[in-house]
Amino acid sequence: MSFQIPRGTQDILPGEAEKWQYIEQMARDICRRYNYQEIRTPIFEHTELFLRSVGDTTDIVQKEMYTFEDRGGRSITLRPEGTAAVVRSFVENKMYGNPNQPVKLYYMGPMFRYERPQAGRFRQFVQFGVEALGSSDPAIDAEVIALAMELYHSLGLKKLKLVMNSLGDAPSRKAHRQALIDHFKGRISEFCEDCQSRLEKNPMRILDCKKDRDHELMETAPSILDYLNDESRLYFEKVQLYLTKLGIAFEVDPRLVRGLDYYNHTAFEIMSEAEGFGAITTLCGGGRYNGLVQEIGGPETPGIGFALSIERLLAALAAEGITLPVAQGIDCFIVALGEKAKDESVILVNKLRQSGMKVERDYQDRKVKAQLKAADRLESAYVAILGDDELEKQVIAIKNMATGEQTEVSLHSFVQYMKTAVESK
RNA sequence: GCGGCUAUGGCGAAGUGGUUAACGCACCAGAUUGUGGCUCUGGCAUUCGUGGGUUCGAUUCCCACUAGUCGCCCCA
User: Fold this and answer.
1) Which of A35, A36, A373, A392 supports an S-S bond with A31, CB 3.0-4.6 Å?
2) How high is the pLDDT of residue A127?
3) Which positions on strand B lie below 7 Å from a protein C-beta?
4) 3-class DSSP assignment, residue A3
5) Cα separations (Å) of A393 from A181, A332, A414?
6) Does strand B come within 7 Å of the CB of A211?
7) Which residues, listed in sequence order, are joined to residue A350 by a DSSP beta bridge?
């Protein structure tokens, strides 16, 4: 074997690609109805953008970025997530000056993270995400979450869990942070190495630790929810109220901490609860990032968004045994026998296609039997057979593959006959 | 970045330190010289991920590499 695909990447082959198209189409249609517009940004950005936005203490920045120097000596990074670039573009193109606020955007495309591949984890994966910039109305938080849920529901997923938390605003976080440090400080030596280093850098993440989750101090640790100031608390309550009014079930998990530094207030994850899904169950993650636009050099602008992986969405569909209604099969297969008939079939195939039908023929010089077999394999609804006999009479035989019935129609009425047959099917 | 398991034809899968590598599916041909889905017959891996080692001999034993897979960390 001379070449193989790079680790953690995948070819999406025919048969599978149709599912992607179906999902993408569904996502676009939902965005249209929610009035989110597509934005396409480059696949790479200046490294500095991600250091600033994602946060240089995060795992993404510390060990997962595809960073390289280009020929001009610039440090370039393949985007590990979508929000940074959208915000960069928002600022660079002065979308904050757009009279239509908030600016509601969506994107779909590959992201890159240098990781060990695993079930549901790839080095190149596709994210669909939305960002709403310019509003701090809790209704937009609920709208963004509803949009994600609608996509999953419209594809038939049922076994989902929406988990919510509020990370609060800056003063709330600061107070909570201090409370956490005070809580763990005395006995931090009883915790894992990671947690020990988290104590000063980001004590909130200790709560998220899988290793030490049973430690008694975890139970009694101060919850962010108790440290939210009035403004933050009311905001979170309003988001929950709206979700409830929308009939979207959720649970509040005060331990939910998102991996990127830029989040505040609303944080949420949508997870699959399907049996045998594997270790990674997060389908979608998102939250509010009110300081990010300013961090990137724009005016103070609130924002909220989410990102979800199409790969994991497909895995969730598979886990729930859902088959997407992707069209398969063709309308007509033209079997041609003999040189003259083959010459004629070139034209007939073209005519059918131009009138909207999905049509195929033989290009392998196969015998009748094999051509019929090929038609069967392609799940063709009809087969049209043209040989010397038919050519002489200026007719063509049409066989309904489901019933086996066969009739002859004149060549000049062939296209019209096929059209009505296919449409009435 | 760390650990477990795996690597045989287009796919699934058995197998043994020794001159012919099961089987199933798919595919091709024929039985049916102009008609598919069923049946029958035949065909289809100078070769067992790559490289090296042990051995008289390795697909089978050992090592490395690569890849897949599952898990840890973390995330989408």
Assistant:
1) A36
2) 97
3) 1-3, 27-30, 32, 34-37, 49-50, 66-76
4) coil
5) 92, 21, 13
6) yes
7) none
Taking the CA of residue A121 and the C1' sugar atom of nucleotide B64, their distance in angstroms comes to 27
A366-392 pLDDT, tens digit each: 889 889 999 998 999 999 999 989 999
Q: Cβ within 7 Å of strand B: which of A 259-278?
A: 259-260, 269, 278
C-alpha Rg value of chain A to the nearest Å: 28
Residue nearest to nucleotide B37 (CA to C1'): A376
Check whether A171 has a pLDDT greater than 80. Answer: yes
- φ/ψ (deg, to 5) at A101: -115, 145
Place of tokens 């193109």: A93
Q: pLDDT category, A239, cuts 50, 70, 90?
A: very high
Whether CB of A318 is under 7 Å from strand B: the answer is no
**Which of A24-28, A198-202, A262-266 is the least confident region?**
A198-202
Query: Residue A38 is inside which H or E element, if any?
Result: strand A37-38
Average pLDDT over residues A201-217: 75
Arch. (CATH architecture) of A17-169+229-319: 2-Layer Sandwich (3.30)
Protein-nucleic contacts, chain A 61-80 to strand B, CB < 7 Å: 63
* Strand B contacted by A243 CB (< 7 A): no
According to the model, what pLDDT value does residue A1 have? 45
Mean pLDDT estimate for chain A? 91
- Closest C-alpha to A342, from A388, A299, A309, A280: A388
Domain boundaries, chain A: 17-169+229-319, 332-423
- Residue A419 pLDDT: 96
- Pairing mode of beta strands A124-133, A160-166: unpaired
Per-residue confidence band for A47, with pLDDT thresholds at 50, 70 and 90: very high
